[in-house]
């Protein structure tokens, strides 16, 4: 019986994580974090950026999520996946060119 209750609690937690909706500043922070990480990974995969630079962008993404987005890492990960799936590579790279400096000003990591 305890195992069933624990299993139901885990399912309820996972269901809640899938249903989390971010708005306002938190949604903007997720967009910035996605833009940073996705750009680094994409450019590195294309041979246009080295691994150290990619790691810096991914690290910035993690810090933005840690400092400016509430919720569990599971919720943040699902939100990042949803953002990634809604935007194609070209839109994300264009977003990076236009908005990366503004993201760092709006969502400081230091």
- Main β-sheet description: none
Amount of helix = over 70%
Secondary structure category:
mainly alpha
- Low-confidence sequence ranges: 1-13
Strand content: under 5%
How many helices? The count is: 5
Radius of gyration: 16 Å
Strand runs, count = 0
Encode the helix/strand succession as letters. Answer: HHHHH
Overall geometry: globular
The averaged pLDDT comes out at: 86
Kindly report how far apart the N and C termini lie.
48 Å
Topology (elements, then pairings):
Blueprint: H1 2-19, H2 24-45, H3 51-68, H4 73-86, H5 89-106
Structure characteristics:
110 residues, mainly alpha, globular
Task: Describe what this molecule looks like in 3D.
- The chain is mainly α and 110 residues long.
- The protein is 82% helix and 0% strand.
- Helix 2 (24-45) packs antiparallel against helix 3, helix 2 crosses helix 4 and helix 2 packs across helix 5 (89-106).
- The radius of gyration is 16 Å and the shape is globular.
Could you write a compact summary of the structure shown?
The protein is mainly alpha-helical.
């Amino acid at each position: 019986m305890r195992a069933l209750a624990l299993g139901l609690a885990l399912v309820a937690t996972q269901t809640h994580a899938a249903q989390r909706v971010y708005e306002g500043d938190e949604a903007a922070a997720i967009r910035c974090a996605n833009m940073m990480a996705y750009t680094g990974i994409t450019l590195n995969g294309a041979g246009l950026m080295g691994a150290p630079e990619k790691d810096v962008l991914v690290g910035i993404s993690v810090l933005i999520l840690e400092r400016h987005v509430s919720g569990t890492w599971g919720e943040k990960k699902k939100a990042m996946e949803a953002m990634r799936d809604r935007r194609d590579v070209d839109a994300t790279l264009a977003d990076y060119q236009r908005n990366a400096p503004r993201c760092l000003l709006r969502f400081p990591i230091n």
